Amino acid sequence: MTEQQNDPASDGSGVNTIKHKAFGDIIFHGRAREIIGLVFRNFVLNIFTIGFYRFWARTKVRRYLWENMYIMGSPLEYTGTGRELFLGFLMIIFVIFLPYAVLNGFLDGMGYLQDTSTSFWISLGTGAIFVYLIGVASYRARRYRLTRTRWRGIRAGQTGSSWKYGLWYILYTYLTAILGLIMPWKNMHLWRLRTKNTFVGNRYFVFDPDNQARKCLVGLYKNFTVFWLILTTSVTVPVIAFWYLYQTASNRYPGLTSEEAGSIAGSNIGSMFDKDVYGYILLTIWVILLLAAPVALAWYKLHETRALMQLTTFEGLRLSFRAGLFKFLGMYVGNLVITICTLGFGTAFTQVRFARFVGRHTDINGELDLATIMQSDDDDISNGEGLADAFDMGAV
Fold first, then answer.
1. Could you tell me the pTM of the whole model?
2. I want to staple 394 with a disulfide (CB 3.0 to 4.6 A). Which of 17, 272, 380, 388 is the partner?
3. Alpha-carbon distance 391 to 394, whole Å?
4. What is the helix (H) or strand (E) element at residue 156, kind and residue range?
5. What are the two backbone dihedrals, phi and then psi, of residue 48, each rounded to the nearest 5 degrees?
């Protein structure tokens, strides 16, 4: 709920000023059944337009989500258009992907891609460029959505360089691939970069005003270590099973080469689980670990979400996230099932479920003095999420 209070206060000139305050929580009033017609219409039009209607379909779904999301008693407004998304997509296709296709064809025609060493380095460089562009795309897509968001008529937005963000993204991506334990640090740092550049009106969000990030990070590492150990062990168990069969084959047939022993070990790994007592034990441990890994990941992500939201403030307002583990896990598993069963066409239903979940489990603590917020002049993106769409990242 939201209230406005009129508190006369002198501004020094003898004239009383009116101070407006807003408070309340996040409430989502939408229902999945309300968008059945919208989803069906978008589905049919996408078929007739060979998928090109998806930009306008996404816009309509966003407007429904925004209009039903109430923050401190007032709904959000989405002002983006399908035309902007479509033009952004075309721009990226002609600026990035078409030149890449031409260059790749030229290199192939000149025979450079026939050489294994040259082809490897070209593929490695191309992969790095695409990882970098994914980081750039995610940042620009977020900026576009924020610049097309209004609350009480006040524009939101995001400053900062998407190109610099892309550098941080590619750095952390490769470090995570090498050192998986860096993930909590990576997620917190990228969240910090996005948060400190996010604004509503002329006021910016603040991350970690009380210098509690390091303490929270220590707690997150304790949670993440549990998941990391389970994941590492689940990968190690098949390796141990293969090594056991390899040694057995080598000892039973001393004249075998390493390749022959490995082939026997690989062909017998299934029968090991059927006949060997050690196989039963390893199989049981492996199944338990495979079931525990997603639960441990959800447990970590839940604590990460709580920590990052608690460290984020806006004009004295603080967020808190109070969902439990099984509800958190159930929301993601349910959305995954819906996406798979509908072959992706039910994505809008998953977005409504997610929005309701956020509204039901997120609290806003404090009061917002509306008199301190003025309209911003920044509305700096004229085209949509072309790069994100090219990488199929603009579903939300």
1. 0.83
2. 388
3. 8
4. strand 154-158
5. -70, -25
DSSP tag of 152 = T
What are the C-alpha distances in Å from 270 to residues 122, 181, 394?
A: 39, 32, 42
* Helix (H), strand (E) at residue 122: helix 116-147
What's the token pair of residue 4? 């406005």
Give the gyration radius of the chain's Cα atoms.
26
In this predicted model, what pLDDT tens digit does every residue of 204-230 receive, in sequence order?
Answer: 999 999 999 999 999 999 999 999 999
Terminus-to-terminus CA distance in the chain, angstroms?
A: 26
What are the b/e assignments for 357-371, b being 16+ CB within 10 Å? bbbebbebeebbebe
Task: Check the CA dihedral 389-104-130-161 and report its sign.
Answer: negative
Cβ burial of 255 (10 Å; 0-12, 13-18, 19+) is: exposed
Q: Residues near 256 by Cβ (< 8 Å), separated by ≥ 6? A: 249, 250, 264
**165 three-state secondary structure:** helix
SS3 call for 296: helix
pLDDT digits (tens, 9 = 90+) for 69-92: 999 989 999 999 999 999 888 888
